[in-house]
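Regression test attached.
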Amino acid sequence: MTHVRINNLTKAYSGVDAPAVADLDLDIPSGRLIALLGPSGCGKTTTLKMIAGLIRPTAGDITFDGDSIVRIPPEKRGAVMVFQNYLLFPYMSVGQNVGFGLKMAGVDPKTIDQRVKEMLNLVRLPDISDRRPKQLSGGQQQRVALARALITKPRVLLLDEPLSNLDAHLRDEMRELILSVQRDLGITTIFVTHDQEEAVLLADRIAMIFDGRLQQFASPDVFYRHPASERIARFLGGVNFLPGKRQGDTVETDVGSFRFAPGGEDERPPEDGLLTIRPEQIVLGQPTAENTVQGRVVSRIFVGTYTRYRLALGSHQIEAVRSADVAGDFAEGQDVPIGFPADRVWMVRPDQAA
Amino acid sequence: MTDVTVKELAPADRSAGKRATGKIVFYATVIFMCVVLVLPVIAFFINAFAFRWFYPQLIPDEWSLQAWQRLGLLPPPGQFSIENLFAQWASVPDVVRALGLSLWIGFLVTGVSIVIGMPAARALGMYSFRGKRLIEFIIITPTIVPPIAFSLGLNINFIRWDLALEAAGINLGLSGSVLGVSIVHLVPVMPYVVLTLSGVFANYNADFEAQARTLGAGPFRTFWHVTFPAILPGLFVACLFAFLVSWSQYLLTFLIGQGRVITLPILLFSAAGSGNNAVIAALSLIFIAPAVLILLVSSRYLSGESGAVGGFGRV
């Protein structure tokens, strides 16, 4: 159980203008499972390696339970990293791999054997202790790597893209394994991913990082309901953005005014920004509902479990997704009432670059 | 065997033709290698134990151990006993002394070249940086520049430094000493070591070291438990090259050693001038013995499935 704090963490490489990580602040309560989410090259892996001690920060501090660990070498931090490609030592057996951490800690061979057995049971791979890593499938290697990391009872577990190398069915299995092991052992866990789905599936809270800077740190559902910026909304699959001005809880756009439900204390939507709503939250064909405006169907694509509509709304085009189990369909060219439920609408600040 | 059966089942005639050509090339290569490499060694063996061996004879009609007696490795004719043999060896014949010196210089040069070469090879194999091409070129220049060119220049400098140091009261004695000869052996040895090891490091993933560190291994134990086993096959090959290149140096030893550092090649060359075929043959056998021994011991490493040998493949 370790409380991890990251203060003003910065990593700049000489000869490179933009720092890889800039002024990162994160407070990770003990026992939590946190995702660092962002596109590749955003500095999330650099951050993970700084926590592990494999990269030395340029500035800032990292504390475990209040003690700074920046000057402690990686082998003494108690932060174990599981790499994306597992990195099982090829010339050791599975058992030797799993027992490596304890061997380095000077534990006697008998205890190591015992613990290796326990760990392999924990990751549901009993009786493979004598095999070579080469003989295992990718999913099995991943689990062995997890067992190897957990055997020393680390204070902090660091996972680099834990699900991205796995097939779809293995992902579910691995996800459940990570969740149950993490919950049972209560290890503070930080993982890195570029895949929003992976982050949402696993994490208690997600730290969204762009260009080495923390954008938003919140629980997964907040990212979908109340993204902080257009870029975050787009990263998570948002496509609908209408420029507008906010007054209180009402947004004025050139296609009409919309009321929206206020967020929490620390979520202040901008005055001047973009109104956004996820395609699957739009309600079609209910003229009497609140926040409803008239639009026209531009195109429709039937995808089986749902239908995807492109809609013209004044001079804008938006996208809506309608589940197949909701009755009613709209033809191309048909006029249709478009409803934006107040608790699904949100204001974001626009992208500077765009 | 399975390989062959699978190929023989292949229906196309063309592959059968290819197979025949392949066989011819294979046997031609084997025969050529035998003629070039094995026959001379057989000739050495016969010569080394012959009394006289002249032209029309296929094998000598009289055998003797005279060459080995002359080299002082066996007691004089008619005095053979275990005690005399021990006495003979205890007096340290020149051949034994030269053998010992060659081994000592070989091991020293191997050790030093690995220690110097490994960091360089790691940098060259794993990172790209400005001037890398130039550095690689400089490292292989000793294989291009004739040894006599740089060794003469080096010898002059060694003598100068010796004089300068002597004036300062330090008697290092690079010229004409084992130390000087060992240093100069490093020149032809380093390209082999650095190129072999950089091939190893090009296929090496340093994340394994990072992984070991986060699992609680310090820098030294990380090297011992992770880096060392990973590069071992390639390291072995590099050591082999280093030792054999040093072992076979004649010109550099001769010039820098100034006749005072008598290694096996020096002894062999002076014997070659003397014209006694049996002695030359006996010395040659002693000279090639370590190479053959090392190859026998190491064939496992050289032909095994070690990917770490890298660019040199199966050698």
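Expected vs. actual: identical. The longest helix of chain B spans residues 13-48.
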